Amino acid sequence: MRNVAPAIAAAFLATTALAGLNPALAVDQTFETEKGRVQVTTFADGLANPWGLAFLPDGGMLVTEKRGNLRHVSADGTVSDPIRGIPQVDSRGQGGLLDVALDPQFAQNRLVYFSFSEPGDGGNSTAVARGVLSPDAGSLSEVQVVFSQKPKLPSTKHFGSRLVFDGQGYLFIGLGERSEEQFRTQAQDLDSHLGKVIRIRPTVRFPRTTRSSTGRAPCRRSGLTATATSRAPRCIRKPGCSGSTSTDPRAATRSTSRRRARTTAGR
Questions:
Q1: Do the Cβ atoms of 176 and 157 come closer than 8 Å?
Q2: Phi and psi (nearest 5°) for 108?
Q3: Closest C-alpha among 87, 115, 232 to residue 172
Q4: In what order do the strands lie in the sheet with 50-55?
Q5: pLDDT, tens digit (0-9, with 9 covering 90-100), for 200-220
Q6: Catalytic annotation on 72?
Q7: pLDDT at residue 206, as a whole number
Q8: Catalytic residue among 130, 158, 178, 193
Q9: Residue 222: closest CA among 146, 121, 162, 157
């Protein structure tokens, strides 16, 4: 059976760093919980504001640092230099290099997806890019942005960033409503990306006539189709994010299934 202590320790590191926005420092100790005893051990240190992580098949992991670095942490806890190929990020406020996820076919294609605060005309927004991880995990090549939240806004808050693949190859992206009063009401508008859970199928090119389940034309970028599956989440970053109405990525799937069931029943 796989030793889960490194996973628990790594998750603890990311959680404490996100909450305090200080270099990650884990304290080796044991916690008694309702479900049993949890032993926390330091697995890797020296990371600055680790935000998201994805486990690799060899037991190592990829870890994002808020300021814009992606690092490889080996199975023995060794932290690499920053992986080359990450685009520019806007790390002000709550922005930065955020979540990271492996393609379901990573063993064959070595594709890595990551979300980040993308600067641009008008301010910034949450974007998702992918790239091919080199065999030595030192660089990403063929990096391309596969989704960019619209519009870009002058805000440094509520980027969202959660990335989850389902069992059918769809990528779900949790997007924040950007906090500020003058535009956060767009979370209720299906013509805006703000405050939505977006679903894309990044490995398939859809015809431009495809429409979403809401009957509206979906958002498009680089030939990909994005469909809003949920509206008005506040800040979907990780499961348990305070103030979010849909922090569990499974909630978006359940919500979509219920909406489709209602739509089908009404035909």
A1: yes
A2: -100, -40
A3: 115
A4: 50-55, 61-65, 69-73
A5: 887 644 333 333 334 343 443
A6: no
A7: 35
A8: 158
A9: 146
